[in-house]
Amino acid sequence: MNSLTPAWRERLWISGAVVLAVVLGVQIAQGGWLLPGLLGAGVVLFTLYRLKAESLGSFVLAGLLAGYFIGNRGFAQLMPAPSIPLLPAEAALATLVALQVLERIRGGLRRRIHWIDALIVAWVVFGIARMFFDAKLFGFVAVRDFAMVYYAVFFFLAANIVHRDFGKLSVLMDTLRIASVIMGILFFMTLLWPNVLESTLTLRGVPVIFYKADLVGIFAGIGALLHFIRFEQTGRWHSVGFSLLLVGVVLATNNRSALLALTVGAAALGLAGRWRFPALLAGGAVVATVFLVAVASWRGDDWRDTPLIEAYERVVSLVDPLGTGNYQGEETANKGDNNRFRLVWWTEVINETLDTSPVFGLGFGYDLAARFQRVYYGVFPEDFNARSPHSIVITVFARMGAIGLGLFLGIVAQMVVWVWRAARRNNLEQLGPALMATMVFTGACFGVVLEGPMGAVVFWVMLGAAAAISQGDQRDSKEPRLIS
After folding, report:
1. Is residue 112 one of the residues assigned to a domain?
2. Residue 387: CB atoms within 10 Å
3. Number of C-alpha atoms within 13 angstroms, CB side, residue 145?
4. Is residue 36 part of a domain?
5. Structural contact between residues 372 and 344, judged by C-beta atoms closer than 8 angstroms
6. Closest CA to 77 of 86, 388, 358
7. DSSP 203-223
8. Is the separation of the CB atoms in 12 and 4 below 8 Å?
9. How many domains in the chain?
10. Contact assessment for residue 196 and residue 236, using Cβ atoms and an 8 Å cutoff
11. pLDDT tens across the length of the chain (484 residues)
12. How many CA atoms lie within 13 A of 51 on its CB side?
């Protein structure tokens, strides 16, 4: 080929391209998409390889995080075509794995293995082994339940990206901070004009933005913490305004797990000696209480007719696992029933797992609600379609047994250690990603959060970033500024 003149080389390339175009045209005309698809994927990968596309990984993650914050459940169920079951999390997963394989070929991604890596690998491998048997019994339903395990791959992808360039964490954290404000504004719009987004902003009939209250509350809590951390670092008071806006979103969702996640975040800042955020929350609560009581007194009303009763009962219900309290607020009257609902479901799932398969679990695809429905309702309600018992800890134990739960709790323990160490060192840069993961996990203990991509992707990406920062701190005594 090198002996040919430039003109002949050009003719050969053009001739080959024409022949290839004809072949692909015939394939497409006959409905054959396999060869064109493979060729297209190959061209894309080659182009990315030539462009050193590993740097695009952080932007893929940032786009995914922004999509789940702003679009929430709507974004999570978008597909390029109805016949192609490729959801955003799975599409991003495939893209990022391909990018990092290319980077490894180029000789990069030499991250030292941490023991949490070994725990996650063992957890995923055990899940795959469990899935091998469950897929034969339950089919695609098992694959859907198994998603909570394979989302853990985002941990390694995020850890590698941040480890290679600590500046990429700024991209991720800035994305969460900005996206949380947009989410908060849009969420309040849906409260004022219900269904306005679901009916007007759609793609092939599927809403692009569709909010799930517990996830909105958890994400708003994360945004509130990030904006206040921004204030602590820069002294810009508009960050406090954004933080208060997002605290208002947490309260507006009427979701206790989100409120608990926000409390955990505030406690971590307090442990770091940053008492202004907990003080802001406490002061705001006192001012609101005094104001509402004064208005009620001036109007001659009972304080129980104010929103205070609902705020009080929401907090009290957190320490009432048996649901024995008498709740009178319009929005909190069902909190006692809700607590009993969870307690009965958790108890039945634990007992069934202990009776049937305590070591290996009941498996992916197994119906964790059947026994609960018989006990709680006496019959099978037609409108009951929940599959997960509203706690990631119970879900992991039920599906993967003591082995899976032990590995998962080891991962959680390392996450808590990172939060503790960063807080004790008053290191906000290191505290950020580990605390965000902890807040998602807190909400997941009382809701369906980590079983789906909206919460799971945020959790594993933040945990992976925390792992990379932890290793970077051990490698270099100088603490890099990671949150601009």
Report:
1. yes
2. 15
3. 29
4. no
5. yes
6. 86
7. ETTEES-B--HHHHHHHHHHH
8. yes
9. 1
10. no
11. 555 566 665 556 555 555 555 555 555 555 555 566 666 666 655 655 555 545 677 888 988 999 999 988 888 887 765 656 668 888 888 888 887 777 776 665 566 778 899 999 999 999 999 999 999 888 888 999 999 999 999 999 999 888 887 888 888 999 999 999 999 999 988 888 877 777 777 766 677 788 888 899 999 999 999 999 999 888 888 899 999 999 989 988 888 889 999 999 999 999 988 888 888 888 877 777 776 667 666 766 665 666 666 676 677 777 667 666 676 766 666 776 777 888 889 999 999 999 999 999 999 999 998 888 888 777 666 666 777 898 999 999 999 999 999 999 999 999 999 999 999 998 888 899 999 999 999 999 998 899 989 999 999 999 999 999 887 654 444 443 333 3
12. 12
Range of 98's domain?
A: 55-78+85-475
- The closest of 29, 148, 111, 128 to 392, measured between CA atoms, is 148
The two structure tokens encoding residue 173: 């954290």
CA 44 to chain centroid, in Å, comes to 28
Q: Is residue 48 part of a domain?
A: no
| Contact (Cβ atoms closer than 8 angstroms) between residue 109 and residue 164 | yes
| Spatial distance between the Cα atoms of 167 and 408, rounded to a whole number of angstroms | 29
In a domain, 41, yes or no: no
- The pair of structure tokens assigned to 365 is 């695809």
The encoded tokens of residue 170 equal: 């700024």
Name the DSSP letter for residue 328.
-
Structure tokens at 52: 């050193």
